[in-house]
Amino acid sequence: MKPAAFDFVRAETLEEALETLASHGGDARVIAGGQSLLPMLNMRLAKPAVLVDIMGLPALRAIRREGDAIVVPAGVRQAELLASAEIAAQPLLAAALPFLGHYQTRSRGTVCGSAAHADPSAEIPLCLVALGGEVRLRTRRKARRVKAADFFTGMMTTAKADDEMIEAVAFPVAQPGSAYAFKEYSRRHGDFAIVGCAARVASDAIDLAVCGVADTPERRSFPRLAGSALDDALNAFAWALDARDDLHASARLRRDLVRAMGRAVIEEAERCLA
Amino acid sequence: MPRLSATALHDVRFTLNGRPARVAAEPRLLATDALRHGLGLTGTHVGCEHGVCGACTILIDGVPARACLTLAVQFEGRDVRTVEGLAPSPDRLSVLQEAFRRHHALHCGFCTAGILMSVDAFLKTTPDPDEHLVREVVGGHLCRCTGYSAIVAAVLDAAAILRGDGSNV
Amino acid sequence: MRAESVAYTGQSLPRVEDAALLSGRGRFIDDLGVRPGTLEAAILRSPHAHADILSIDTSAALALPGVVAVVTGRDLAALTLPMVAGLKVNVENWPMAVERVRYVGEPVAIVVAQTRYLAEDALDAIAVDYAPKPALLDPVASIEPGAALLHDTSGGNLVSDRRFSYGDPEGAFAAAERVFEITVRYPRNTGAPMETFGIVADYDPHEGVYDILANFQGPFSIHTVLARTLKVPGNRLRMRMPPDSGGSFGVKQGVAPYAALIAVAARIAGRPVKWIEDRLEHLVGAVAATNRVTTLRAAVTAEGRITALDFDQIEDCGAYPRAPEPATLYRMHGNMTGAYDIANVAIRNRVALTNKAPTGLVRGFGGPQVYFALERLVQSIAVGLGRDPLDVIHRNLIPAGAFPYRTATGALYDSGDFPAAVETAAGAGRYAELAARRDKARAEGRRYGIGLAAVVEPSVSNMGYITAVLTPQERAKAGPKNGAQASATVSIDPTGTVSVTTASTPQGQGHRTVLAQVVADVFGLAPSDVRVICELDTGKDAWSIASGNYSSRFAAAVAGAAHMAATRLRDRLARVAAAQFQAQAGDISFADGKIVAVGGASAPFARISALSHWSPGVLPEGVEQTIRETAFWTPPELTAPDAADLVNSSLCHGFIFDMCGVEVDEVSGAVRIDRYVTMHDCGRVLHPGMVEGQIRGAFAQALGASFFEELAYAEDGAFLTGTFADYLLPTATEVPDLDILHLETPSPFTPLGAKGVGEGNCMSTPVCIANAVADALGVADITLPLTPARVAALVERPEPAPPEGAGATAKPAGRPGDRTLRGEGSAFVPAPREQVWATLLDADALASIIPGCHGVKKLSPTHFTADVTLGIGPVKGRYKADVMLSDLDAPNAATLSGNVSGALGTGGGAGRVTLTEAEGGTRVAYVYEAAVGGKVAAIGGRLLDGAAKAIIGQFFAALARRAAPDRAGLFARLLGMLTGGHK
After folding, report:
1. CA separation for the pair C475, C755 (Å, rounded)
2. What range(s) does the FAD-binding PCMH-type domain occupy (chain A) (predicted)?
3. What mean pLDDT comes out for the span C813-840?
4. Which of C536, C607, C682, C786 suits a disulfide with C757, CB 3.0-4.6 Å?
């Protein structure tokens, strides 16, 4: 279980990194924390010709607040975000991040790396979609910002072009009058979620996002509902996600969890709001 | 722009257990292989090579890292610590190591180095953890022999000693 | 001479092993250096469950830099013989596929190169042409008449079928007031030690000697198997074991076939060769415990007394009956009645071959399979009779005064007091408290259940039990096999200090510490004065076929042998000392590092003990040297199976009674262990800390078997749990605390009174938890592992229907093992239907729309092959594709079918494409079924369905682009449409 051969570029400027991506296209991969990429390299599921290491770029290492967004550049590790002062501005992130892998992988894995990997069960994509966050992409020639809901296009597939890299992701901070809650269910602590649910509740609206069921995290918005009306909304959402059977869970269990955990996170957020 | 060719050996310089170190590495050389077979520090073990078992956990710049998910070339300029650097001197054990011995927190010992490194980093930032937190940190490792209870007890005991709260010694 | 003072044995001393292991100075096989020039091996493995090998082209691999040799099955067959099987069947038992592969992960070729990295590069360059055959996965189906054969010469996949009858089972069933029956399927799991297999082999062509360093655990009966396979006399196969081994749990018995492979690779390469198994290899192909289908019937009185048992066991040994299998089926033969006094027993044992990895030793070895059936049945009897399960257990336990007790099937239980152990565990309010917790939970509407299990834990296997697979006539012809020969050597060096060596090959159990305790007590020394080395070298150490670390034999057998050797030396030293002190040998004692005579004369131990080196002339007449003593010990009780098929399969029989309370969440299927109590009688405890460690370790593994672990296969034979992300081991957050209780009834059959203890909870805990879940949910049919989906499905709860008009429907639940990928979708192509049809029919055009197509060979207008790159995200692999068009219905529909194969695995499938005219173009709709095998299935299972969907989406995106090639900017737009239209 050893990687195939590749060149390794230690980018010293963002331009160098982007230049390498531009000249190699799909044969180059950015390496930051390496927690998703290295297993694929070791198993030879991926055989890139070039890796571009961006962890030497100081500009990518600092979390910053931009207006109503927490901007997390590509070099920020998950543990650094969890330990940052900025995370206090978004309770959903603070609740979800401890479920992301393990202490020993959060210390290396980056926030943007998890977004780039786009695992359908992962917490960072879920939070981005739940909060209506954005992904900031850049090529040698241009920068663009993509809404999270548009960024995740399929299982491990994103709107990022081969010559683009994620420069940062932006999480909206908590909106006044909103409360947030997160829950996930996995076979063991630290495993990929069978189902994860993130809720935002405001005086007149509920946003519920779910990971682990469809190919990408999915979000639904509905008015404040309770009782059987909420049950119906959750049931419709659960069925719409087109759950599948796999080794770890059945489609039925996933729908049941969406219904039960969806209600639980909404109720928890409602309690916070009250 | 430093570009390391796939087929050449590159000189990687870093700090290893407090001392300057260097190793010759192709870009694809895993940190586990560089430490074990390049530098002869065989205390870091390889259990899965896909980042799950935690046997190869080391510290890079003071935080835990799966060495099997790290390339040797990523060591460049970093501060790397392995199990060989834990004890205060070759004929002594650290407080944490002693607690593991006292509590029979290891049987075959294959996974132990990784757990020690994780916990060593953890206790520096969290000197007074509760059992739940310790189980979460140890939960990032697979041990097939002990059933974990003795490991958790050893960590809590070591934490108490390191805090100066007395001990079961 | 006075009796030894027992000072250290029985204490939880710190382990001598620990300091090195804690400071990174362990010496596991991959920590040891190798000779300069040693090469590294990597193994190419089959992606198919069953296929003929048509050809293997190694030329491209051999041309790569650093590659020294590529060894195939034919090369192997030229230098070796097939491995001997444990039963008489006409099957060629090769350690690497020769002409045909029979399980996913079976070795197909070995690359030997300068580094492992280069060797793996070359694996990708070996081209193997396979002709897949239907795979047989279900042991019941595989032994049906007319099933396809795994081995053409075997005469059937049923390779052993033996019936046994003890007492009068027919009479007991005929007279029974009630008969209960249960059928259970025990899953495949494994020990998964944290260190994988490792081998360094060398061959001396002049002396004809193989020298193999391996983390093999024994039994060393396998040495004879290997020597025969390698076609050398026993003294030309030197096996050495490293000082440390990173766990085994039985599994490292399975190193043996790889030892043969790497030895042959070294011979062909002409250099030493090293192979360290990686985790993917380990999970797919190392050693699995057997999965077993058991139907068990009991004849029972109205009060719950069991008068007879009737076992029908179908054992799945995988693709090859590899020695020592079918030992898993026979290891428990003497104790099939468990803790119960049951005089009448019928057994039918069948062994099936299937297209799965071969099985072998795994902790518990046969116990989990037997007790899952027996203790589930005991609970069913209690439920059926409306009695408390504890009452049914009590009614059937072997009474306290009955030991030594001969079971119906031939075991001689050495000691115990089962009723007292059960009463102690259930007493002190423990059982009552569980019942109260259950009552309270149920009153609150929660699902709470109690599970019990009483089991007998056998240890120190009789090497002869496996011959019970033969008929008495066959056994008579082969000659009797029996015993459990243990050996130990105690030496005294010229400075008078004591060393101990054994052939016990520990894998972390602390043998060195316990041996130091035991031997120190004999000599009146401190354990730190005794140095113990356990790294066996078959070229010069004392060993026998029973040597090794298995069947929990250390404390009972090996420690006893060391005690014997030390005692013999001490008795001679007493005579030497007596001569020195002008005293009687009987007046000499050994204590506190001194040898003392009654009356006061004394000398430091070393002064007397070294005399045999420096002044052999002072040894009294008739006293042999005191330099070295080797003891071999085998218990006389372990006789060979007799003409009536009575089998005393093990020497020692510990007892376990487990009791637990669990709470089940009926929505999530989560099971929380509220309380777990385990009572053990393992005879005399030599080191309480280690005994507790063994119990906790076995308990954690058993939790894995109960909730997480299964080596899972799809119906087509694809292996699905190739990583630690899919084969889940419990972690610290999943293992609850447990209450451990002890009762000590020393074994009269072992030198120290000790019995084995390390495997018991692997036998008792899975069924105890299953009983608790059955009780919580009021269900009878429990299958392990109790995954959330499986537990949730045990609760009958109607599901809310999908909302009207949403188009969503509940798909029928898939059959277990059916991992077929299914999907459907549609895409809009802004081109006339005829144009789209023409594109589909044009092989060249079709080739160009297969994603990542590199080169096309057109075999006919509707059949072509191509090289393709497929994948999602960064996961990409290169494959050979074979594609056909059929069932043409112009211009409405066509079927596209094909298969791909490459280094990452194989895939095959078919899709029906229908074209309908739509506003401004054509709507292309498709349904498909696909199956994926090999590496991708083993490591990517969680993501496969989505990946297949994405790749098929890519295909139709490309089709749309191709069918309307002249519209600028269309591709991006179409992709967007596809994503939108794709459901």
Report:
1. 29
2. 1-176
3. 77
4. C682
DSSP C347-393: EEEEEE--SSPPB---TTTTHHHHHHHHHHHHHHHHHHHT--HHHHH
The minimum CA-CA distance between A196 and chain C, rounded to whole Å, is 13
With respect to residue B49, please indicate whether it lies within any of the assigned structural domains: yes
Compute the C-alpha angle A197/A203/A205, nearest 5°. 50
- Residue C867's nearest CA partner among C877, C881, C857 is C881
Tell me the CA distances in angstroms from C186 to A118, C8, C369, C512, C769, one per residue in order: 37, 42, 6, 36, 14
- Residue C691: in which H helix or E strand, if any? helix C688-703
pLDDT in tens, C258-281: 999 999 999 999 999 999 999 999
Q: Is the dihedral of CA C164, C170, C175, C177 positive or negative?
A: positive
B48-70 as b/e, with b when 16 or more CB fall inside 10 Å? bbbbbbbbbbbbbeebbbbbbbb
A102 interfaces chain B, CB cutoff of 8 Å: yes
Q: State how far the Cα of C721 lies from the Cα of C707, in Å rounded to an integer.
A: 15
Is pLDDT at C949 greater than 90 in this prediction?
A: no
Distance, in angstroms, between C876 CA and closest chain A CA? 6
Q: Where among B29, B59, B84 does a domain terminate?
A: B84
- Helix axis angle for B149-163 and B112-125, nearest 10°, is 40
Contact B142 C724 (CB under 8 A): yes
Name the residue of chain C whose CA is nearest to B106's CA. Answer: C18
Nearest by CB to residue A12, choosing from B1, B64, B76, is B1
ipTM for the predicted complex: 0.98
Of B40-44, C31-35, C89-93, C968-972, where does mean pLDDT reach its minimum? C968-972
Contact assignment for B28 to A107 by CB distance below 8 Å = no
Alpha-helical segments (H) within C53-197: 59-62, 73-79, 116-123, 139-142, 169-175
Architecture of domain A178-273: 2-Layer Sandwich (3.30)
CA dist A243 and A258 (Å) reads 10
Domain, as residue range, for C828: 821-981
Which band of pLDDT confidence, cut at 50, 70 and 90, is reported for residue C936? confident
pLDDT in tens, C734-756: 999 999 999 999 999 999 999 99
Nearest CA-CA distance, residue B117 and chain C, Å: 11
Nearest residue of B to residue A102, measured between CA atoms: B140
Question: Which residue, C268, C260, C353, is CA-closest to C58?
Answer: C268
Higher pLDDT, C266 or C910: C266
- Note the CATH architecture for domain A58-172: 2-Layer Sandwich (3.30)
Q: Where are the beta strands (DSSP E) in C724-831?
A: 739-742, 821-829
In chain B, how many domains are there?
Answer: 2
| Per-residue pLDDT band at C943 (split at 50, 70, 90) | confident
Q: How many domains does chain C have?
A: 4
Of B47, B104, B108, the CB nearest to C690: B104
Task: Give the pair of three-digit tokens for residue C351.
Answer: 């062994």
Strand order in the sheet with B10-16: B19-25, B10-16, B79-81, B57-60, B63-66
| CATH code of the domain occupying A7-53 | 3.30.43.10
In angstroms, the CA C910 to CA C116 distance is: 38
| Tokens of residue C804, six digits | 């009207």
Inter-chain contact C22–B50, Cβ cutoff 8 Å? no
* Nearest residue in chain C measured CA to CA from A49: C874
